Amino acid sequence: MKCPTISELPPSPGSRTGWPWTMPSPVPAKRDLEENQWPKISIVTPSYNQGQYIEETIRAVLLQGYPDIEYLIMDGGSEDGTVEIIQKYEPWLAYWVSEPDQGQTDAINRGFARVKGAILAYINSDDFYEPRAFFKIAEVFLENPTAQFVAGGCAIMERSEITRVFKPWWPAEPCYFLKPFSSTVPQPACFWGHDLFKKVGGFETNLHYCFDQEFYLKIALAGVSPFLLEDDLARYRDHDQTKTRDRIQFFRETLSIINKNGVHCGMSSEDTKDLINQVEKEIAYENVIKTWIAAGRLAASSLFLKMIITHPDLVFRRKILGLARRLLFFPRHKVPELGS
Predict the structure, then answer these.
(1) How many helices (H) and strands (E) does the chain have?
(2) Which range of residues forms the domain containing residue 295?
(3) Residue 210 sits in a domain of what CATH number?
(4) pTM for this structure?
(5) Rounded Cα distance, 108 and 215, in Å
(6) Which of 105, 139, 285, 317 has a 20 to 30 Å separation from 232 between CA atoms?
(7) Is the residue at 112 inside a domain?
(8) pLDDT tens digit string along 115-158?
């Protein structure tokens, strides 16, 4: 499907202006190609109760001005007005559904099982693409026949302000992706070939927090390196409901990635054991803070002592000494946030 024009879409709600509300994406004149010569780009949006953001996501896909897109929305049964927003844009969607699923990875994989595009990507329902992102990606694939994976920059937003920009890079060794929080390319700004997605087996449905990390690891183990663009292709919205706030779950899923893939990365059993031990210490530390927030100082102090008994070497680390000091002296209203 060719992207619709801004006049064909429903009008911008309220007083919202600019991209992607009242401003379309400029169409580049760099390539003199017929519309049918551009590769089809298939985009999947997994969604669940992100009604306050999803319309921006949808419009930023549809207003790319690109000649051949396929857009699917896989909603997990939202009850916050998301479905009504999706229905507004139904004429321009290749497929959408709103029903209970097995989580984000299940929704994404089921979406990609339906697509026909040569280039694939997914964008979460609280993130959105920058103007001309699709043309920039397609040009890389057209100019580099060996390209299988392309990543650009991504602006990080808090509320409506850009706080930093995540620029992509790629590690020299696949084992880098065994470390917690080790993604080196920003997910919203990543695009890959259909064949590569099938080759590595898509996303691991047993993972709900680290599936991107494991996906990049599989790509690295397949000997594929991405083409890295300086251009910013997307915006990631950091807010209180983002899954990245739950650091403990990320650490726990990292353990399963290490156990499954350590040997494939050439790690010795001793190195694997050491890395697992490091991650377990981080989980213990985060659990103390989480317990303090949920159950108070006494419960957190008890858990802190258990952590020190289990991992006595932690007692000499600066952040552990800092946590002990805070447990002793911080007032209740100054409980630190997870990850601090």
Answers:
(1) 10, 9
(2) 268-334
(3) 3.90.550.10
(4) 0.91
(5) 13
(6) 105
(7) yes
(8) 999 999 999 999 999 999 999 999 999 999 999 999 999 999 98
